[in-house]
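Page 37, continued from 36.
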């Protein structure tokens, strides 16, 4: 159906969209199918090589316009399906609960396709990131939710106007909240250290979560929202680094490397403040902002974390060297 819609053009897509949204209300099977079609349509955004420029622009315009209705629809479907599935499971209706769980998985998959290219303003103003943050705390759906978060973290700032920059800043601050909550949750779980090591229930998820946090630190650290939030995320990453499991430590070390690069990029701070303001600055104003940026960067790493962080880096590097030597022998 998605392929036929693409062949028919933007008019067919505009006619199909309200039908898909209406059909989703008929039951979990129809809702799952609607999500799958929307996901395939979103992936088709890269399948226009054989079409002319005018046709491509028209179809892309239709896709962009549809985001205003699709993202709220997906978030609402996630909420309703999860609630219905939880109720069904509580009542012992296993098959119905499984169907609603399939809708949640399909909706998260669809969301991952749209957040790659949807306007950042729609992601920051809606409840997309909040929904992902919630499902990061649900074991059955956290992997799919983390994929969506990873897609958003991969977005780059391209502020043409002050409003777009504000939307980007808001989205990154929300992502920092989501990552803090997800990291804190698995670290506070019973037997957290054992569950994050070999054959633990959080082994793979913990590594993927640390990878996403490291990417966030590399690309968006200054947009985390507040220094308190940055320090909380640092403390969580210290806990991950302390866990005696080399694959997890290797991922955590990439976070510290990204943070060191960010902390040492002093010229970038003044540039960031200039972009964030949306206009140029005077010589005195620019100097004051640059001094404030340098002061902010001096607090990127809380003092209590510095010695522990350095010790863990040296310990992990030493462990890796020993492992390599043992392998050679």
């Amino acid at each position: 159906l998605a392929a036929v819609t693409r062949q028919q053009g933007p008019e067919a897509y505009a006619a199909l969209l309200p039908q898909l949204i209406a059909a989703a209300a008929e039951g979990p099977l129809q809702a799952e199918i609607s999500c799958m079609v929307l996901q395939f349509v979103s992936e088709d955004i890269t399948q226009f090589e054989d079409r002319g420029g005018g046709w491509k622009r028209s179809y892309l315009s239709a896709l962009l316009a549809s985001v205003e209705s699709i993202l709220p629809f997906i978030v609402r479907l996630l909420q309703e399906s999860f609630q219905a599935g939880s109720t069904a499971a509580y009542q012992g209706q296993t098959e119905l609960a499984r169907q609603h769980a399939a809708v949640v998985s399909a909706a998260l998959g669809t969301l991952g396709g749209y957040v790659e290219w949807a306007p950042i303003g729609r992601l920051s103003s809606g409840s997309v990131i909040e929904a992902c943050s919630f499902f990061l705390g649900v074991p059955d759906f956290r992997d799919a939710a983390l994929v969506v978060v990873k897609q958003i973290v991969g977005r780059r700032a391209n502020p043409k106007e002050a409003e777009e920059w504000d939307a980007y800043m808001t989205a990154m601050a929300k992502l920092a909240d989501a990552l803090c909550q997800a990291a804190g949750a698995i670290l506070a779980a019973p037997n957290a250290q054992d569950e994050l090591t070999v054959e633990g229930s959080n082994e793979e998820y913990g590594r993927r979560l640390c990878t996403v946090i490291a990417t966030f630190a590399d690309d968006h650290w200054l947009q985390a929202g507040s220094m308190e939030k940055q320090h909380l995320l640092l403390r969580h990453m210290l806990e991950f680094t302390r866990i005696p499991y080399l694959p997890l430590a290797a991922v955590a070390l990439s976070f510290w490397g990204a943070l060191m690069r960010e902390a040492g990029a002093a010229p970038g701070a003044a540039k960031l403040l200039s972009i964030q303001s949306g206009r140029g600055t005077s010589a005195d104003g620019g100097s004051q902002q640059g001094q404030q940026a340098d002061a902010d960067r001096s607090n990127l790493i809380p003092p209590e974390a510095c010695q522990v962080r350095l010790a863990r880096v040296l310990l992990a590097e030493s462990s890796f060297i020993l492992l390599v030597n043992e392998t050679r022998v």
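The first helix runs from residue 2 to 8. Flag for discussion at group meeting. The radius of gyration is 23 Å.
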